[in-house]
Specification:
It contains 18 helices and 24 strands. It is of the alpha+beta class. The C terminus is likely disordered. Bound molecules: guanosine-5'-monophosphate, iron/sulfur cluster and magnesium ion.
């Protein structure tokens, strides 16, 4: 998963993009980068590994002069964690510098890349966004708009993209609309971002969300709608609402906070825990869900777990002999909330089950009399091919274990998940969701890489 930003017609665009990236940090923590284009069309790039706050310094931002910028935060879903794979890309194109920031995952990237390599293309990274750059460069279309469009028509899968060519910014969302993207106004300029929470920090106001298949051009403070991409069955990623996006964002026309609260209410309606004394979330991703559960059930909401917000990606255990359980670094129970009580623990999703098992151990050690675990999404049974880094099928506990087996593994008194129908009801608007990782109903043909083939049985490709 990744976060993308575009800024046009705003002085010190790179600093505005930097703020936007800060608000999209949750979408990717591996690397961050910004390309800025100055008034004469010269582009500069700075990208580095790590968090936005580590990747940029005052000195590096000062170098990024200009009133046009695009930015990216990366969480690898395709390609490894190395600087060469950090985005945006910046290349010299005949029409000026071309840069690209991609959120999503292309399902035919391997096939396209093999073909391009056979035709003599030289790749500098292993991420699929680079394929789009080559396709633009090789297009025979007469205009730049046509060349970008040509590339977008050849790729399949999930993309919410920001591309700059010279001083023009293009933004596009694939026709299935897996990933969110929004346009905002900032003074006389315009911004684009993966989520609306970034607009708030940049000081921009929402113009509109990009809809599936939208392809727009941003120049001189104006949005020009280019012909839409060929329509497909809309497949918004329901997991964006369940887990990935920030609750203060509005995506797919829905307030993320509102949907999460409704998912919590659905859990309380269909999966009650009679006699429980207190309900709490596994912070922070399920806070709104626990609130909804409490509102609907009348069970008192409290803070049963406290999360350490300063856990970096590379925690070094100070004393090897004191090897602490990983989960303890991140969470600690609040004893007086838990001791002697029957507790309902709400989480948004269960992936491998390892964090949850550790948490349950902690909650029991803190004196819980009964533990009722409730999940605001159905069992995850398959990997995501559209840009969320869910593990391989074998690592997903629900791909090979029944709910009862998972209950025993976690060591809880009861374990209940929302059903697919209950989750969709909570998310609103039927027939517009991708829920493939829960249902196995993949909206695109999926090309499995050799690695994935080894890990998945049976093959998961279910063409439309
Ligand atoms: P588990 O018990 O399966 O090890 O972890 C469950 C937790 O993982 C939940 O709290 C959920 O919020 C979180 N989670 C769900 N999806 C993802 C993901 O794609 N990446 C990360 N890092 N955490 C996730
Ligand atoms: Fe989202 Fe799951 Fe579909 Fe991936 S498979 S796009 S995570 S709903
Ligand atoms: Mg969580």
């Amino acid at each position: 998963m990744c976060g993308v930003i575009g800024v046009s017609g705003v002085s010190d665009a790179a600093r505005v993009a930097y703020l936007g990236l800060y608000a999209l940090q949750h979408r990717g923590q591996e690397s961050a980068g910004i390309v800025a284009v100055d008034p004469v069309g010269r582009a500069k790039l700075h990208r580095a590994m790590g968090l936005v706050s580590d990747a940029f310094t005052e000195a590096s931002l000062k170098e990024l002069t200009g009133d046009v910028a695009i930015g990216h935060t990366r969480y690898s879903t395709a390609g490894s964690t190395v600087l060469a794979n950090a985005q945006p890309y910046l290349v010299n194109y005949h029409a000026g510098p071309l840069s690209l920031a991609h959120n999503g995952n292309l399902t035919n990237a391997n096939e396209l890349r093999d073909k391009l390599v056979r035709d003599g293309a030289l790749f500098v990274s292993t991420v699929d966004g680079e394929v789009i750059v080559h396709l633009i460069a090789r297009s025979k279309a007469a205009t730049i708009d046509g060349q970008v469009r040509d590339a977008l028509e050849q790729v399949d899968g999930a993309y919410s993209l920001v591309i700059s060519v010279g001083r023009t910014i293009y933004a596009a969302v694939d026709s299935r609309g897996f990933r969110p993207m929004v346009i905002g106004r900032l003074g006389s300029g315009l911004v684009v971002a993966s989520e609306s929470c970034a607009l708030d920090l940049m000081g921009a106001t929402v113009v509109r969300e990009l809809l599936p298949g939208d392809f727009v051009k941003i120049d001189d403070g104006k949005i020009l709608d280019l012909p839409r991409l060929a329509p497909r069955r809309v497949s918004r990623c329901v997991f964006e609402l369940v887990y990935f996006s920030r609750p203060d964002s509005t995506i797919f026309g829905e307030s993320v906070n509102h949907v999460r609260r409704e998912l919590g209410r659905q859990l309380a309606r269909h999966h009650p825990a009679p006699g429980a004394d207190v309900v709490f979330s596994v912070p922070d991703s399920s806070n709104a869900m626990a609130l909804g559960y409490s509102e609907e059930s009348g069970i008192k909401l409290d803070h049963g777990l406290i999360r350490n917000h300063y856990v970096g990606r590379t925690f070094i255990n100070p004393v090897q002999a004191l090897r602490v359980q990983k989960v303890k670094i991140k969470f600690n129970p609040v004893r007086d909330v838990i001791n002697g009580r029957s507790v309902v623990v709400i989480d948004d999703s269960l992936v491998r089950g390892t964090t949850s098992k550790g948490l349950v151990g902690m909650i029991k050690e803190a004196g819980a009399r009964e533990v009722h675990f409730r999940l605001a999404s159905p069992p995850i049974t398959g990997p995501c091919h559209y840009g969320i880094a869910t593990p391989t099928r074998e690592e997903l506990i629900a791909s090979s274990h029944s709910v009862e087996e998972i209950r025993q593994y976690l060591g809880v008194d009861t374990l209940e998940y929302l059903t697919l129908g209950e989750m969709i009801d909570g998310a609103g608007r039927r027939n517009e969701w991708c829920h493939a990782c829960f249902s196995g109903d993949y909206p695109t043909p999926v090309q499995l890489t050799l690695g994935q083939l080894r890990h998945s049985s049976p093959p998961v490709a279910i063409p439309l």
